[in-house]
Amino acid sequence: MPRHIEIVEVGPRDGLQNDPAMMSTDVKLEFIERLIEAGVKRMEAASFVPPKLVPAMADSDAVMAGVPRDKGVKYIGLALNERGMRRALDTRCDEVNFVMVASAGFGKRNQNATPEETADLFDHIAVLAHDDGVPVSVTISVAFGDPFDGEVPIERVAMLAKRAAAAGAVEIALGDTIGVADPWDVRARIDAVRAVAPDTRLRLHFHNTRNTAMANIHAAIEAGVDVIDASVGGIGGCPFAPKATGNVATEDVVYMLERGGFETGLDLSKLIAIAKWLEKEGLKHPVHSMLSNAGGFPPKT
Ligand code: MG
């Protein structure tokens, strides 16, 4: 049996939230349908943040009202505060993802909170999800480095992971929000988190900003991590890393893993077709993935 690696598709949320194209609700739903057709079983579909701050996610309630519910797909909604959590629960998200920040410089600008404040807030709002029986996960953003403060102490990442697990997070993601991680640091931070939250599933979120995402994924897989975030076409940057390319591309990750003998449940050629659709129709601008240019291997006869 090949080892299964779960790829969480973040394109419809993380991929679109800062894209200038401002995809309409109908096109977002078509995007989601195409992803499901390519085999996606778990995806970030919505973000319940103030529309003034993230206009591209203003229609998240409508998106969640329109997603297909009969295909065994789990939809994740992002929440940063109590209001967001209530919206995510009201719109029947299958999972709510809360974001803790590992550094104050980014935290103040992204959600006006310090690392400790985000952990305190999670204590408070995780209860709402627990009461509704909805699983809640935590992403620790800027877990490998902060665009304003620089290096992020590994001890702080471990502290946040410990608090996330204590408050009932079913999964902890380490987010390399600005794409500064290296594979050896990935291993070290995974070990540090496991030491304080041994029973909590780990997920890793990488950006290919400095061309290290695939090496970082390899390090995570070798460390035993079974859940990886990716965004088809590599869409989605970070507003505080203005020149940065986006999330690591789903099709690039699927190619590497399937060549390596892992099983993802995703269809590479359909993912490449979605990347091309994004360029021509969905976003109408180029996307950044190697596989959508090169195609898979071996060639299909
Ligand atoms: Mg991202």
Structure description:
With 301 residues, this protein is α/β, with parallel strands linked by helices. The chain has a single domain (6-294), classed as Aldolase class I (TIM Barrel, Alpha-Beta Barrel), CATH 3.20.20.70. The chain contains twelve helices and eight strands. It has helices at residues 11-15, 25-37, 60-66, 82-90, 104-111, 115-132, 154-166, 183-196, 213-222, 250-259, 268-282, 291-294; strands at 6-9, 42-48, 74-79, 95-101, 136-141, 171-175, 201-205, 227-230. Strands 1-8-7-6-5-4-3-2 form an eight-stranded parallel beta sheet. Helix 6 runs parallel beside helix 7 (154-166) and helix 10 packs antiparallel against helix 11 (268-282). It is globular. The mean pLDDT is 96. The structure holds magnesium ion (MG). Magnesium ion binds at residues 14, 205, 207, 236, 247.
What labels describe this entry?
binds magnesium ion, 12 helices, TIM Barrel, 301 residues, alpha/beta
Task: Give the topology.
Blueprint: E1 6-9, H1 11-15, H2 25-37, E2 42-48, H3 60-66, E3 74-79, H4 82-90, E4 95-101, H5 104-111, H6 115-132, E5 136-141, H7 154-166, E6 171-175, H8 183-196, E7 201-205, H9 213-222, E8 227-230, H10 250-259, H11 268-282, H12 291-294
Parallel strand pairs: 1-8, 2-3, 3-4, 4-5, 5-6, 6-7, 7-8
Helix pairs in contact: 2-3, 2-11, 4-6, 6-7, 7-8, 8-9, 10-11
Magnesium ion binds at residues 14, 205, 207, 236, 247.
